[in-house]
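Entry 14: structure prediction run for Beta'-coat protein. Input pasted below.
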Amino acid sequence: MVKSFEVTELPVRSAKFIARKQWVVAGADDMFIRVYNYNTMDKVKVFEAHTDYIRCVAVHPTLPYVLSSSDDMLIKLWDWEKGWMCTQIFEGHSHYVMQVTFNPKDTNTFASASLDRTVKIWNLGSPDPNFTLDAHLKGVNCIDYFTGGDRPYLITGSDDHTAKVWDYQTKSCVQTLEGHTHNVSAVCFHPELPIIITGSEDGTLRIWHATTYRVVIGYDEGTIMIKLGREEPVASMDSSGKIIWAKHNEIQTVNIKTVGADFEVTDGERMPLAVKELGSCDLYPQSLKHNPNGRFVVVCGDGEYIIYTALAWRNRSFGSALEFVWSSDGEYAIRESTSRIKIFSKTFQEKKSIRPTFSAERIFGGTLLAMCSNDFICFYDWAECRLIRRIDVNVKNIYWADSGDLVAIASDTSFYILKYNREIVSSYLESGKSVDEQGVEDAFELLHEVNERVTTMFHLDRPMYLLGYLANQSRVYLIDKEFNVMGYTLLLSLIEYKTLVMRGDLDRAKEILPSMPKEHHNSVARFLESRDMLDDALEVATDPNYRFDLAVQLGRLEVAKAIAIEVQSESKWKQLGELALSTGKLEMAEECLSHAMDFSGLLLLYSALGDADGITKLASLAKEQGKNNVAFLCLFMLGKLEDCLQLLVESNRIPEAALMARSYLPSKVSEIVGVWKKDLNKEKKSIRPTFSAERIFGGTLLAMCSNDFICFYDWAECRLIRRIDVNVKNIYWADSGDLVAIASDTSFYILKYNREIVSSYLESGKSVDEQGVEDAFELLHEVNERVTTMFHLDRPMYLLGYLANQSRVYLIDKEFNVMGYTLLLSLIEYKTLVMRGDLDRAKEILPSMPKEHHNSVARFLESRDMLDDALEVATDPNYRFDLAVQLGRLEVAKAIAIEVQSESKWKQLGELALSTGKLEMAEECLSHAMDFSGLLLLYSALGDADGITKLASLAKEQGKNNVAFLCLFMLGKLEDCLQLLVESNRIPEAALMARSYLPSKVSEIVGVWKKDLNKINANMCCLILVNIHESRGNYPPAVEYLSYGERSNINLVEAFKSMQVDEEDVPLENGDSGHEVTEENGMEEGQEEAVEVEADESTDGAILVNGNEGEEEWGTNNEGTPSA
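Run finished. Output tokens:
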């Protein structure tokens, strides 16, 4: 465990990372959401989010949004850039909301799963769901979107023990996954592999194949980490260098030949290949293989195969097979089972069917068709399927040479190289002789058997997989699991040369050598050296350094000398000189040591020879080169004592000169002692502080610090400038030399160095006490425990420095990786001036600051409640809109909304205009936002019949039938209301309305209702009746509707103007209509009844008679069937 956070004593049901902020957000049963910084472990925010247990939190992938769902049946949207303000509430579920998740392909939409048995798809800009899936027979616990690019799927898990895969575009169930024996509590799609994972309260986790929906594994009890898929990429390369690979179902191709001529191919370097999309595959590829001429590619997987054209990726043939292999001439064979093998021609027609007499566990292609059992392999010819040879060996793989005459059979512990005797086999078969169960006896000839011998050709830094070898490039190509391709040089001529040398056939080996590139000759030479063939290695090698070493090993000094002249390396001259000296070649030794400037070696040589002239010459040369020790020894050996004494004085070795004069030249003692005294009297500055100087610091002044104070000194005279009582950790001087930062363990101080005051004080000749010059420093700032996070780092970094001309600070890590961050001094200066209250100077600095930093400045100003200035500085339209709304500057906000054209902004602005009484602006904004609920509230409050008429038409066009119905009802257009209910397939509600308001229409509507009921199957009707029985008491008896039979039509706009609203209205229950028509008790005959209309602005209007709140697709209840 890396870190642990103590959140609350109650269960924490959901926690998510917000990586771009280094946060963890968690929701718990105490109804609070908490946000932590997972680097510093600080608590960033705590707030009460819901009125019941929080089930799930979901983080938007790009915007500053977090969704939360709860047992209070609500979903809430939180914006952390607005101080974690709740910006939207989504209502519609009638039971606990168990999970919410964003759609990765359309991040403006999200899905929610609830115990009301439904899944709802929502849009961030609307409080109403886009649509509802009646997902399961019991509550839905979990939901997840498919992240792949090819299918619009989501998966749900339920208390009905099943998981279902849905197509959210067609709103249909694609597959039901059955197998769990208890509630399914977790579901997910694998982000890359075609795998579905489901977890259940039955204690098992099941992994399903997303194509066949078959169970792969299941396990009970405990936690285990499992590995899915395989590391080896599915790829194939043809003989021309074209590579095809499969990334899941997507097929891509690259061509090695497309690498530009200007790119120098280096062994082990990733090749910059242009990837081209070929198409997709109908099955999930597990293997790819080109046919021999590269025209076709076979894709195998899930017990099937498909043959495609390599260029256009067109399907040419397909079928079922456990294995597929190509022949060397384009035919192919498939293994349907262990007892049936089929051979197909080049035209994809079945040619032969074989039933081997043994269990064929695997097949291999090539020159011959091979079938292997567990302990032997049989080779057959492709034409007649005749047995060629049986070989008793446990086979792992088979590799045929391009010539078709050699084959390598690999087992677990060794491999065998065999020669296929094509002529012997042909003549045997043509003779008509019978072939026994062992086949043709001399069909193969064993050439080599290789056991556990390994030669390292290249060192790889990660697992790589073999693609193939291109002989015309002499390169072998590898691929890694990330589909990076790289090549390594592998010369067949080099391998052949080494083979001939090992066989002792040196003459043929020398014939091959000229055909080998020069850059590989050194490799050949090292191979020859390893076999003690040094003369041949010297002849082949091209590297001068390597040839020099070989010549020295062979004692061929003249060859080594010629190489040393060519290379001109002191170390080689010295090595050759010592070798010549040891072998008695003195003239060569002298020459070599002279070239090497090896004065010690020359001194040894000349002294051994007694060569005074050589020593004299060496003394002069050594003195010129500053080798005074050798020069002294040469002069001393020649008896030139005065020259020795003079050399010691000139090299400032005066004490040694005095001792030598006393020993060898007494007459020079007084002179040398006088020189020594003068040297001792030379002025040397030094300071002996009166305290224990634990550390010193450089800069404009020299600083020495003790444990609890620091003293500053000038560099010229080492005079005390000032003592400051502070425990110092470090000191940083500004480039100007006038500012210094003194850092301690808990704070730091910014001081100004008053250079003029110090200079005038010292020039006055006044004495300086132990505290120094009183006004030498002026304290500007003291910073205590105030930290501003400028950049978030993913690992420890260390400060290198700041480059003002680049406005960047540079950091380095322990691996010596250097990185830079922008740090504007102008931005820091601006903030400093604002904090000081010097706004005029701050405004002068602002134009010099890059535009991309203006939003940062604006947020700083907002944090200081300077909203007007922030609005003036900000450049981001969304941020400026928020500021304008906060300031109540609606015209500015309107101009931004026109520029951005965002429905959410128009709606927000419309609501603000409505609350401030700016009705014209409110109408305009709500119209732009298509906020029909807001417009209905506005027009009904104004009694604007024309507005309501226009809104009814617009709402009907947009499919907002609830709002359209309310508008028509308020206008008294009851027949239009009835027609709208019928058109939107809300026939039961139409029948009830006709019974209540339009009795003349009852028979017509009942007839339509009967036709509609005939479309429903019996089982669904039973389920509907059960639901009605469970909901008994939610609706008034049908008798009460009779009182409305003779009522006259009424214009509800007029009624709305004169209606009385009670102080204590009873809130609507779930499922009740959003409008309520009541007939007051004691009403006299002919008296108009009071009518109350309520519009809930959180939806498109009130729900009609037995309707389902939030559904825009009328005519379906929660079970997906017409209402009854």
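Notes: The two ends are 56 Å apart (CA to CA). Will compare against the previous run tomorrow.
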